[in-house]
Specification:
about 140 residues, 2 domains, two-stranded antiparallel sheet, CBS domain Like, about 40% helix
């Protein structure tokens, strides 16, 4: 396994990547030895990527002199699955007592997703509507 993240002086990530290779039985010792030698020869993953080389270039270096084939290629992307609806369900899950305190003490609420930093603002009316959902039927 090789992993790396290069962080610039301004805190920006300029290169990040890695690889994981697992030998499955039956394993040929010569092939495993060649792979280990290849891994030792490559620079740090971040250095490799900062040179402008692609993941396919890394794969070719790792398996140099060994037979391999690519099963597929898939682009990676950043995506958070948070939604207003999900955040509302979290607030309802706090229960009627906590929501009631929130309304009484603050009058509104703001929830920030820890993953994507999206902010969800809830007005007093929205919190009161959620309070109705949080209280069991028949509870005043």
């Amino acid at each position: 396994m090789g992993l790396g993240v290069f962080v610039e002086t301004d805190g920006r990530v300029s290169a990040a990547g890695g690889f994981l290779i697992q030998a499955l039985p039956p394993t040929e010792e010569k092939m495993a030895d060649r792979l280990i030698d290849n891994i030792r020869k490559i620079p740090l993953v971040t250095g490799f990527l900062r040179q402008g080389k692609t993941p396919e270039d890394l794969l070719a270096e790792l398996f140099s002199g060994l037979p391999y084939h690519t099963l597929g290629r898939k682009s990676l992307f950043f995506r958070c699955s948070c939604t207003q609806d999900k955040v509302e369900k979290v607030l309802v899950a706090l229960g009627g007592i906590e929501l009631g305190k929130m309304i009484q003490e603050q009058g509104e609420a703001e929830v920030t997703c820890e993953y994507c930093r999206t902010r969800y603002h809830f007005t007093r009316q929205q919190l009161e509507d959620l309070l109705l959902e949080a209280r069991p039927p028949g509870e005043a």
